[in-house]
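Exam revision sheet. Question 4 asks you to relate a sequence to its structure. Input first:
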Amino acid sequence: MELYPTIYTFHIVSAGIWLVNFILAPVLKNFIIKSKQKTGERKFIILYLNLVNLLGMIGSTGILLTGISMTALNPGYGFFQMTANHWLAAKQIIMVVLLLIIFIYVIPQAKKIRASLGSDLESSSQISEEGYKYLGKMYKLNNLINVLVVVNFLFAITHRFFA
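Answer key, structure tokens:
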């Protein structure tokens, strides 16, 4: 069980990384909206995509791997057992939903946005209306993901009060 505290620490750090997206994504979204049809808009969009992608990959992978490890190492925990730890089963279901949203919707949407930007990122050409439509969908998806991450976080920090 000596490994458990280390895994738990990495789990918390991964959650923190994923929660940073909750704070930074709206800030970058505002920069993108303010710079619409202006110089630098493409760079803000690329920064937004890279940041959401990087924080999401690190946070979700860390949470997934450490969560599976903690569940496997702790005899009191189990996978999707509503009777034993309903808070943990709810977190696991939300994580599956998050992964489905990411793989089915977010990744293809990000590819469409990158394609609409074109290969010349330094270009001053306008972004197409289709590109803005894809970006709007990405904002909504990212907001949905952030809400689910916050709900999972709240399950994690409040389960001791309701057990």
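Marking note for examiners. The first helix runs from residue 3 to 34.
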